[in-house]
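re: ur question from earlier - yeah i can do the single chain one, its not a big deal. heres the input i used so u can compare w yours
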Amino acid sequence: MSRVKVDCSLYLVTDRKCLEDRDLFQSIEQAIQGGVTMVQLREKSVPTREFLQLAIGVKEITSRYRIPLIINDRLDIALAVDADGLHVGQDDLPLLKARELLGPNKIIGVSASTLAEALLAQFQDADYLGVGAIFSTTTKTDAPEVSLELLELIKKSVSIPVVAIGGINPTNLQQVMATGIDGVSVVSAILAQKDCRLAAKQLKDLISY
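and the output i got, formated as tokens:
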């Protein structure tokens, strides 16, 4: 049983399309300064060499601030940069194989959109769940929608941290947190804003309210 403890209260997932002409590394650092507690590097359509270089750069920042770096999907990249963990979806590398290859001391998160998926992930030793999409989102258009009622049921049914994802922003964040979950995962609510530090701080203040 993995015993990795994670603070996933404000979990940033990257999407460079949100940044327009702003720098990814600078934006991530600003977001961490504003209160982000975890960072997931998500690159679905770049060559492996480019993903690796991005991961090296992001790891330098997250290590400096002692914030966990999670790599989305790509076990090889996670191993290559000694990332703190890996996040897998339902169609990615199976959790049991990921745990076997990463070992017991790395963080592994799993996407879930049903209670059955959530319970299985917990049984198979996931460290946290990413549940969504709670609201419609342009950053992941193929994600199934999850109601607030189901989100609350999943949280009550598992003992590992539950993070909500999908269209979460300052106007609906407290509604989501009212379900009792452990944190929110955001993309555009931070990275699409001109001041990533301020955007993160505003979200963190709402979470802590």
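The two ends are 33 Å apart (CA to CA). not sure if urs matches, ping me
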